[in-house]
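Late entry, evening session. Most of the bench is empty. Finally got around to the prediction I had been postponing all week. Sequence below, unchanged from the version circulated by S.P.
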Amino acid sequence: MLIFFIVAIFVLGYACIALEAFTKVNKAAVALLMCVLCWTVYCLMPGHDLSSLQEGLGETAETLFFLMGAMTIVEIVDANGGFNFVRDTMKTRSKRKLMWRVAFMTFFLSAILDNLTTSIVMIMVLRKLIQDPKERLIYASLVIIAANSGGAFSPIGDVTTIMLWIKGMVSTQGVLTELFIPSLVSMIVPTLLLSLSLKGKFDKAQNLQVTDISNFTKRQRQTVFCFGVGGLVFVPIFKTITHLPPYMGILLVLGLLWTITEIFNRQYEESDPMAKRVTHLLTKIDMGTILFFLGILMAVLCLKQVGVLNAMGDGLNTAFNGNSYLITGIIGILSSIVDNVPLVAACMNMYDVVPETIYAVDGEFWQLLAYCAGVGGSMLIIGSAAGVVVMGLEKITFGWYMKRISWIVFVGYVSGILVYWLEKQLLF
């Protein structure tokens, strides 16, 4: 009975988050209430174990520190003109050309950095190219789609792929060779459909402002960019070498970049000397998004603790007779509703690696799980970390995204699965 109340609280909280535009209650507040109420009910259950709460908070804190560090690094690079040459490379007055450039740059950057960091970077670039927030909505939505698709085929591009990679269920070569084309298709199809609704050109005066607000020289801006974005690329290498968690690498890069910009800023006398200092930029971090992320992850952890997610996985396996395409396909759809990390974690605990089966290393099940959990999160705007961040940065409502974007993502999602099936039939 208490498990029913936990599920009911989560469903009600999720509904309030989805209807934020109507309730006028901030999603972060709802997520925090949902988290506390779920765990409060859990504490009433006989034999409850709060050690999982402490462990889960530690894992969640690692994610949040990584997120805050990445957001701060991007703010530093942006405030000091580091993304100017990226903006200039993508610059065009054609709406359709810009859409394709945004799609491909986001897709490949996501595979190198990660889908979350890439989303932040691309939104910063889009703000320099498109001044009107309403015109940015479709492009911002495309960033979510391309970032999640790009993260799916890279072992370091998405949290779920990283989990499977670290556990030895997929290999670097396997995901790069077999998931690249399906992931690319899942990005190209939505981009094509979205581009059909765009015509004409941007107004030059309003949409292609090129005034640099940074006092740094061109070489200094390039240095900031290299240490910032290059540092983000270095994070997985740092983890491999030291075996420290990723947030330690992020903190290393943040500390180094902070020091460099402080040294550069000493050369300039500004009317507001704190304007581009990191201590000031920290106030621009969207703490509402951070707290929302905290509430959602901890509430989902409670569902996992009471066995709801494992029961869901067992039910799928029984209902579809172990058909990996149907099971992972539905998991991908569920990942747009419930965070994909615990879903993938549940699946990893349900099955063992069995050689010469669909559960072998780089087997059909694990590769499809990596693709579906990553790409499927784009179907709803709160289905992925990238979506949550872009939602906060660009103030995209749940309803607007579901009405205009979700069906387009679904078409691309199914197209990628079909391409993967063809690959297996014809090539592998």
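Two things to note before I forget:
The longest helix spans residues 51-79.
Residues 73 and 255 are 9 Å apart (CA to CA).
Will write this up properly tomorrow.
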